[in-house]
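Example (one chain per record):
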Amino acid sequence: MRRALIALGIGLGVFGSTVVSGPAQAAGVLVVPLARTVTAAQEVARFWLADGAANLKNATPYAVRTAVGGERLSSDIVPDGPSVLIPPLQGPAPAEGSMPTTSGKVFFIGSDLQPHWCTGTAVHSQYRNIVATAGHCLLDIEAPAGALAKWVFVPGYAEGATPFGLYVGKQAETDYDFDDIRDDDGDYAFVNVYNGVVLSAPEVLTNVGRLADNVGGQGLAINQPLAPTADVFGHPAGPNPDGSRPYTGETLERSTGSTFATTVTGVRMDRPVGVDSPFTGEGSLGSSWLIRYADDSRSGYLNGITISVADTDGDGRYDTGVSPYFDSELYAVYKNATKQWTGTIA
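Predicted structure:
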């Protein structure tokens, strides 16, 4: 039985039950229910925070489709619509030398019924409540029966700590074709989260406010020429093909590299983008690619999301992150997400 997901056409003001036909460039926006009631969201928050955040600490990096074959191209990618730049939202003043507090880990239960995590990042939104990550860190592509369960975001996560609170997902938006025909040009998701919470006493949840008010929100860059460089922020943890493990996944890592058009094998993509990055796949799924990143403000423009990695030179070490191109279809999905208010669960 097909899961209860809601498809939208570009320009629709109300929810519909089917995708509405439109121009060739039109995108279908898929709305994915998560914890839609306060009671359900409270149960999710307590699941992760109980027993000293044991489930957060015991989670392992998500290992579903972390690597693909890849070949770098010398061509550029032609935008399919007008350029859009949405500015970052500044949060509290960052500490000197710190990494962006917008980045963190998204946690969920996989089809193996075990807790796992990917990387996510807070982005600009009207209601200060959107997290961007890879689409297959939202939808279960191993057993297509809906969203990955108990989905939450913890910005600044480190070894069980939730310095800015834990944010439960209420609903998410992704590209309809990613779910329907596994078109990985739509392997991205924008998740609307409730206000953050912490456990102030056993079983007692305390509200800590809206996500972007607490950590800021990165900007968004749509229909751009390939950037000279991008800064990638994520939590890589898995091994290289040669067995080496340069990362632990415990801390947020940064790599800076040039971007380029690429071809990939193993997934269905028409316009994949690559970035020079040594990140391994497990844990770095969902990593943010920021262009025009400023060290003083710890902010930039989200222009890519890692959906897989590749070893393009065959030396046994990953050298490339892979992302969908941020085009007009992604912008339609993002715009729908910005309209969704969430509120507090405590």
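Caption: Residues 6-338 form a domain with the Thrombin, subunit H fold (CATH 2.40.10.120).
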